Amino acid sequence: MNAVNVNGVPIVAQGVAAEVVPGPQVAPPPEAPPPEVSDAPVEKTANPAPAPSAQEQSSGETPPANPVVRSSQNVEQQRLLIDTQTLLTGVEGVGEPLRSLLEARGITSSYLTTGRSYCEALDVAIVERCQRMAEQKAAVDQQAKAYVLARGGYASLRQVERTVVSDPAAEIALGLNEEIPGDTGFFVASASHAVAAAQREPYASLLAGATYGSEQLEEVAAAIAALSTLMQMRSDADQAASDATQMRNAAAAEVRRFARQLRLTIGLILRQHPELLRPVWF
Questions:
Q1: Which burial class, exposed, middle or buried, applies to 105 when counting CB atoms under 10 A from its CB (0-12, 13-18, 19+)?
Q2: Helix (H) or strand (E) holding 11
Q3: What's the pLDDT tens digit per position in 170-193?
Q4: Is 232 exposed, middle or buried (0-12, 13-18, 19+ CB in 10 A)?
């Protein structure tokens, strides 16, 4: 049996058959593990925020959002007044042939004067309401300050009273068995009665012995009385502001009606006479 080397691998010949003797086997490289798949849901990426400007980067501050502009007046009514005044000015200065066509439809100088009076009434009503609203705000602020003063003085009085009386009957007479009311009107009524009781004997002497004399009691009573007066002033201011608002709204309704009628008449004339150019003020 002869052995022949073929490409360095020994082959043993036996008769006509040959057997390939395998050489040393090399293990295949290990397979890379498959990528792990997480069961957690994929989060959506939010839209990226806009890049800050160079000025923002240098200052390190973010510009504030656009402020919300609020008005104490009805902006729609003010715009109505301006637009109607512009319309009247345009009609008053219109030339022929539109002037004659308007007069034929009743849009005379007298009619336009009436419209001007409506606008003037609305303008006055807007100013009047603005003044009444300012007075109402002042009355609200004054009442709030008076309430703090009166409530603080009355609370201090109650603290002193608790140090000199322990009799349940006295506590009832001075209102110490009840909490200070949160309602302003109720507070004025109950506190006035309680302070009046404290000014009578024997409680006045007990309080004087605790260095809370008649002058201090008068100060508390005066603060409560001032609050009562300011409450009435605030109520009057509320009513005046409400009346001014109703008057302004009524004046605006007159201007709105007049402007609508005038625009309808002008629009009708322009449709019936297409040869006329549409005025820029219409």
A1: middle
A2: strand 9-14
A3: 999 999 999 999 999 999 999 999
A4: exposed
